[in-house]
Amino acid sequence: MTQDELKKAAALAALDYIVDDTIVGVGTGSTVNHFIDGLAAMRTRIRGAVSSSEASSARLAAHGIPVFDLNGIEEIPLYVDGADEIDGRFCMIKGGGGALTREKIVAAVSARFVCICDASKLVGTLGRFPLPVEVIPMACSHVARELARLGGQPRVRENFVTDNGNLIIDVHGLTIADPFTLEARIDQIVGVVTNGLFAARGADVLLLAGSEGVERRL
Ligand code: 5RP
Q1: Residue 174 to residue 125: CA distance in whole angstroms
Q2: Which superkingdom (predicted)?
Q3: CA 37 – ligand 1 centroid, Å
């Protein structure tokens, strides 16, 4: 199977976790696009979705799935999203698509986070994938210097502006032994909006697609 076929298999397995007559939290990325397409076939069973990006909102709307403003909603039973890396404790690096801030917000409001991945995303230690950090534009140089002091090599993502009008710094060369501490440490840098470590609120369920099928890990 190709990597995209594996992503689709993981995404379709997440449809089993849908709670009827509720609003579904929807992440961003190529794996989630398969989830949205699968969700379209069962759209009459749900009230609609809360989305983590303009791209996902547009795809949901194209399928006729109502997209709700998060501010009107107290709790979402299920959030489905991909990851760039996930470890054995279900801590993740996210934000390869630049949607990390809205993803973290929707995940924070969700009771259950189901992560959908092809098997290449599972790692022993996070950090081979560059860690995305969303920054307020005027703070970009300051934040980059601070990230370098933490031992990484920061690079501003070229020709990219987030849905929130900010920039992304991708931090290369990190070996993240303690994602909980690093997540909190980076958030303390003035000018950082969010970093792509999802440790404090990691995934609850991992649907990992490999050549043998989709493994469900709790
Ligand atoms: C977007 C994300 C995505 O979940 C992550 O980049 C994985 O993407 P894909 O499913 O395309 O491999 O965090 O901000």
Answers
A1: 10
A2: Bacteria
A3: 16
The residues with which 172 forms a beta bridge, in sequence order, are 153
Task: From 100, 159, 89, 94, select the one nearest 124 (Cα to Cα).
Answer: 89
Exactly one of 54, 74, 75, 103 is catalytic; name it: 103
Residue 217 burial (CB count, 10 A) = 13
Token digits for 4? Answer: 């995209």
The finding on whether 154 has its CB within 6 A of some atom of ligand 1 is: no
Q: Which two tokens stand for residue 110?
A: 């969700």
pLDDT in tens, the chain (218 residues): 999 999 999 999 999 999 999 999 999 999 999 999 999 999 999 999 999 999 999 999 999 999 999 999 988 999 999 999 999 999 999 999 999 999 999 999 999 999 999 999 999 999 999 999 999 999 999 999 999 999 999 999 999 999 999 999 999 999 899 999 999 999 999 999 999 999 999 999 999 999 999 999 99
- DSSP, collapsed to helix, strand or coil, labels residue 200 as coil
Kind of pairing between the strands at 85-86 and 110-118: unpaired
- Exposure pattern of 64-83 as b/e (b: 16+ CB <10 Å)? ebebeebeebeebebbbbbb
Q: Is 97 marked within a binding site?
A: yes
pTM of the model: 0.97
Pairing of strands 76-81, 110-118: parallel
Q: Using the mean position of ligand 1's atoms as its centre, give its distance from the Cα of residue 117 in Å.
A: 9
Question: Ligand 1 in contact with 29 (CB < 6 A)?
Answer: yes
